[in-house]
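Narrative of activities, Objective 1.

The group set out to show that a structural description can be obtained from nothing but a protein's sequence at a throughput compatible with the screening campaign. Below is one input-output pair from the validation batch, recorded exactly as produced.
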Amino acid sequence: MALVLITGTSTGIGLATALTLGRAGHKVYATMRNPSRAPELGKKAAQEGLPVKISVMDVDSDGSVKTAIADILKDAGHIDVLVNNAGVERNGSVEELALADFRAVMETNYFGALRCIHAVVPQMRQRKNGCIINVTSVAGRIASSPLAPYTASKFALEALSEALAQEMKTFNVRVAVVEPGIIETPMARRLEESSDGSPYPQQRRFAHLFAAALKNPAPPSLVAEKIRGIIESGTWQLRHPVGPDAAPFLDWRKSMTDEEWVDLHAADDETWYRRMERDFGLAIRPKNRG
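Output recorded for this entry:
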């Protein structure tokens, strides 16, 4: 059984992964910014007697990451697996989002993961054993408005992962990238919310896409099971799309040139809705539209 450190375990994929791995017998160090505000994991772990230990860690803070991981290493002796899951999003047009929004998303989704990698890699390299799993998204390979801050951070984490994999394989340390599609999480539910007043249509249309997809939601346990499979199988496969729409989204993007992709998402509402409904079979168009 592995000693696993997971970031961002208060809700969604992180919460499901901590429970899934604990139930499988792995010893889990589950971290989050404020455990007192997110008691669900602690309650379930206690009820089921799971080997899950919750600790405070803010991946945005150098000091918090260093202290938290040093304490875990002192307690456990080593870390077999790091799951970088903590993430945030901002959505809207590039023009209308503040620079602070871009910085906040990059700080958590990219630099937060990098802080944790820096903290665990030396002992993995020295032991010539370990696994680093970075949770990105299909948005790490498909750039879509209105998620420019989020997709930029996930593209960056994908690139970091690919470079890190080259370095760490020399020392028998595996690196994997998990790329969820649209999964039932609080973050995904927030993307259902449409804003009015913007001259850009993409945010409104994207909200309708998420609302349609979440009528038959894919649970975060799908991602958790994928992560468990990576840990237990010993696979060296780098990228792992997960969820019913992940591979279709990636294949859909591959079917178009860059210019066709831009033209589709810059098109008028009628053209966009018709194409999306044809390609994905979802009733995306809002009810008050023709």
